[in-house]
Design goal:
This protein is 21% helix and 39% strand. It is α+β, with helices and mostly antiparallel strands. It folds into two domains: 128 residues, Diaminopimelate Epimerase, Chain A, domain 1, CATH 3.10.310.10; 124 residues, Diaminopimelate Epimerase, Chain A, domain 1 (Roll), CATH 3.10.310. A hairpin with an 8-residue loop joins strand 12 and strand 13. The longest helix has 15 residues. It starts with 6 loop residues before the first strand and ends in a 9-residue tail after the last strand.
Length: 274
């Protein structure tokens, strides 16, 4: 494997054009960095997630940080990391990217049409009662509540209820949950099957533009309701993004594009601290 100096890539994920989808910082390293440095770097970038990766044997260690916390699973920054590995020649074109993470082994492979396919764990949601105050904080009638690990999932009446939602982020940040996925079936004339939004102010992400990890729950949720294992989701944040999902047992394949927006060299003051 080749290695690179300390540089930062900013990549828009789950989009075919710049300034859409979800921006991720990607920092390839030659060796592990101190956690305090990665946390400070991610806070400086102030993106939903910044990914740090370094080679270990034939795999890559991968960690993700929001401006406020480390997360166990992140789709868009994993997609962005694989994109950077191939774009820079750190991995040969077509070679799978295998990542060791807090959620176990994850992989990324080139797919048709310039897409990247991620192999992630499924997080099938189960019926749940939300914590007191969550209904009121969302500010819209919820048809059904479910839980998927650290997150709650709220089913709304239709696509337009999801698009119009203006939750009370301060209240959401105070509740015992990492985040809230809000979803509904798409209008029939759409070229996608369902819509969603994701709010996680408790970990420094008021609204995530496009959330790969949320689709690990949305894929089994909608597969059961729509009777199909291959679906297309549209996250209807201000930036927006498209996530193709395929449910395969206890795994979910997520497909999308990625676009490099810029790359930069760190100055001496920002280099990895001992």
């Amino acid at each position: 494997m080749k290695t690179t100096g300390t540089r930062i890539w900013q990549v828009d994920a789950f989009t075919e054009e710049a300034f859409a989808g979800n921006p991720a910082g990607v920092v390839p390293l030659e060796r592990p960095a101190p956690e305090r440095w990665m946390r400070a770097f991610a806070a400086e970038m102030n993106l939903s997630e910044t990914a740090f990766l370094w080679p270990q044997a034939e795999h890559w260690q991968l960690r993700w940080f929001t401006p406020a916390a480390e997360v166990k699973l992140c789709g868009h920054a994993t997609l962005a990391s694989a994109h950077v590995l191939w774009e820079t020649g750190l991995l040969e074109a077509g070679q799978p990217a295998i990542f060791e993470t807090l959620s176990g082994e994850l992989s990324a492979r080139p797919a048709e049409g310039g897409r990247i396919e991620l192999d992630f764990p499924s997080r099938a949601p189960v019926a749940a009662t939300p914590p007191h105050g969550l209904d009121a904080a969302l500010g819209a009638p919820v048809t059904q509540w479910q839980s998927c690990g650290e997150d709650f999932l709220a089913l709304l009446a239709d696509e337009w209820a999801v698009r119009a939602l203006t939750p009370d982020l301060a209240v959401l940040a105070s509740l015992p949950a990492r985040g809230v996925i809000v979803t509904a079936e798409a209008d029939p004339e759409r070229d996608f099957d369902f819509v969603s939004r994701f709010f996680a102010p408790a970990i420094g992400v008021p609204e995530d533009p496009v959330t790969g990890s949320a689709h690990c729950a949305l894929a089994p949720f909608w597969a059961e309701r729509l009777g199909r294992t291959e679906l297309v989701g549209r996250q209807v944040s201000r930036r927006g993004g498209r996530v193709e999902v395929a449910l395969a047992g206890d795994r979910v394949r997520l497909r999308g594009h990625a676009v490099t927006v810029f790359t930069a060299q760190l100055t001496g003051a920002a280099e990895v601290a001992p």
